[in-house]
Amino acid sequence: MNNSTIHCLQRCAYAIVFSAGLAMAAQAATFRPPAVPLVTFDPYLSIWSEADQLTDRNTQHWTHREHALASLVRVDGQTYRLMGAEPAEVPAFTQVSLQVLPTRSIYEFEAAGVHVTLTFMTAALPHDLDAFSRPLSYLTWEVRSTDGVPHEISLYDSTGAEIAVNEPSEPVVGSRAEAGKLTALRAGTQAQPILGSSGDDHRINWGYVYAAASTRQAHSAIGANQELLRAFVQTGRLPAQDDAQMPRAANDRPPVLAFVFDLGAVGAKAVQRQVIVAYDEIYAIKYFGQNLRPYWRRNGLEPGPLLAAAANDYPALLQRCEEFDGALMADMTKAGGARYAQMCALAYRECIAACGLAADANGQPLFFTKENTSNGDIATVDVFFPMDPIWVLLSPSLAKATLVPILSYAASSHWKFPNAPHDLGTYPNAHGTDDGGEGMPVEESGNMLILCDAVAQAEGNGDFVTPWWPQLTQWAKYLEQYGLDPEEQLCTDDFMGHLAHNANLSVKAILGLAAYGDLCKMRGDSANAERYAQLAKVDAANWVKVAADGDHFRLAFDKPGTWSQKYNLVWDRILGLNVFPSSVAQMEVAHYKKVMQRYGVPLDSRTHLTKTDWSIWSATLADNPADFEAIISPAYDYLNQTTTRDPVADSYETDKVESGGMHARPVVGGFFIKMLTDREVWRKWATGDKVKAGGWASLPTPPKVTVVLPAADKQAATWSYTTEAPAGDWISPGFDDAPWKRGQSGFGTAGTPGAIIGTVWKTDDIWLRREVELPAQLDDGLQGWLHHDEDVEVYINGVLAVKAAGFIGGYDLFPLMPAGRAALKVGKNLIAIHCHQTVGGQYVDFGLVDVKAQ
User: Fold this and answer.
1) 189-193, 379-383, 561-565: which range is least confident on average?
2) Is 587:553 a contact under the CB 8 Å cutoff?
3) Separation of alpha carbons 178 and 380, rounded Å
4) What's the burial of 715, exposed, middle or buried (CB within 10 Å: 0-12/13-18/19+)?
């Protein structure tokens, strides 16, 4: 058989799989997502339609801030809206269908004798990290006549500059360039505080948003949103010149990046046009003092060539996305039914858009989760534990890339504890939590051992864990001592509080021991393999006795009459550990069906709150498809009917369709766990991973930090302060702050993580001033040493030097903005600070340090 024949057969097979996948997906065609993924890449580039119709409201970032993408269509001189709620007086084209697939969201519109298909595609192909890591989505319009008459048609598209700010009051600048055959428009903040802030309800304000389209096919303009919309509605055109009134605030006559396509007379043959929306972060993650490039930039690629390559690659990528979507939908439907497949398709891009993919010093991938809508933590073990089934299935390289930062940190001199760490800081700042942070010792140790074994099974060997084997051994010993009957501590369901003798947590510990034994077996250590396998089985037999409570098993060993979802049991079957009797899982499934409410199974007997990811794990315990369907269908109904328009919520109340909770989180990757129960399907997808990541760089060596101006972590200082808004020139050296109070640093409330309280501050705002004397020589490595909770601005001699939003859990380095650095001088300098409190703890303190690489 020659190569052309083989290729033909492969294409036919792909076509069959694709057609089957779409046919199965059509069974769930009536599904109404609570929010539709449009332009998705990471926690910053994450734009959704939170409405039934794409024209019902403007598009939004997952934090519900407006990140407006707009589209209009002009048919024979009459303008209609395709995307967005503006202009309100312009009628909407009729939306006739919506389909959400793993890599694409496809809208169909029809009116005025014209059919428009608008497709949002993110080429998140897990077997190709070069495509997967591109920070962009394609918006593609296909337009055709449906009434047998050609129509004069033009299209309008715009991308809002607010995508590049954290707060809409931040000044932005716009510019344009050529990128191959494309015109690339871009916008970004004037300040560019790269990696200068962190937190949960937070958007990016460094780097640049891009919109790019064919220079030959499109007219383009950078200008005020309403003015460009009005120009197109009235004339079908854009202004000839870009708006020159920049920089200006993103909410001041909001600037947009706009294109108009004049399609001419369009008949029955579809005409296609496209815009690429992208974001260049410049740097993605601050990793133990080292700024990491996004993975796509690891070899020096710049935005222009990236956009040009993306345009050239689109036809091939579209074909690959169609094949991927079809094959994955077919396998998911076979595994769990059409409803399950639809839930997973919706979760796919949400999971990816809650993570950042960076490259380490060796160019290897590091994949960092963000704890959206809880606290913004980065690389949280009990967040990537529920996420990683998707990557254990589809990309073991990405699964390993989530584990490596924690493994490396645990092996470093930073970590002093016998259990696994909980997280590495607050996204995008991975600096470690050397004090132990939010302790979940049994939870995280079990999570790491189970995931390491899952990756090893996906790859068919235990080589990956070799550099960190001492840490895994230490965690197994910890679980051996403390895991069977856990003391009062948090588990991953930390919102439920501390709980002693947690039966589900004990399951995790027992399976963690069994997973370690399995790793020992792969590594040829038969003695420890047998020892830990037997230990796990003995512990499991004891668990069955002490957790039994009639027709189910207890929430806690000492609490009769209680119950909980035992979702951790699912790994016993998936990893083939065979520690617990199969009757345990089936008894639990039968009980879940008894306690189920309208929209799902509550997490446990204390609450009506559920976790969608854990419910799918619990459903996966079922032996038959009917029981699996019975448990997941109420969760599907919730997503289909809820009035809370969030990206997929992984927490809500099972008796309240209007309830909502944590959403837009990576944990929805856990929906894919059902797929791991079929070894052949698992092997098929996992072996497609051609990246074979390995050889990660060691944890960066911390720079040498020399104190120039101490903060309270070294030596308290006296500041002038007020909690009442001062006059406008308060940042200037000549301002008279004599009426202000005097207080010792730092300023805040007790209990704020990392705070060293010298002066209690409990109001919404505080303004600080301090005159300092700097040495005769100011080194180039001078940086801010700042702890803030929450939003802060630091001025040096009246010039903005540091701007950060959100909060951090301790003191950290903050590079000075160029203008602020230039304002420093030998001798006397005035430092002025404003900090704004939003929610939770509050604190602010500032110093200066000299930073040198070691």
Assistant:
1) 189-193
2) yes
3) 40
4) exposed
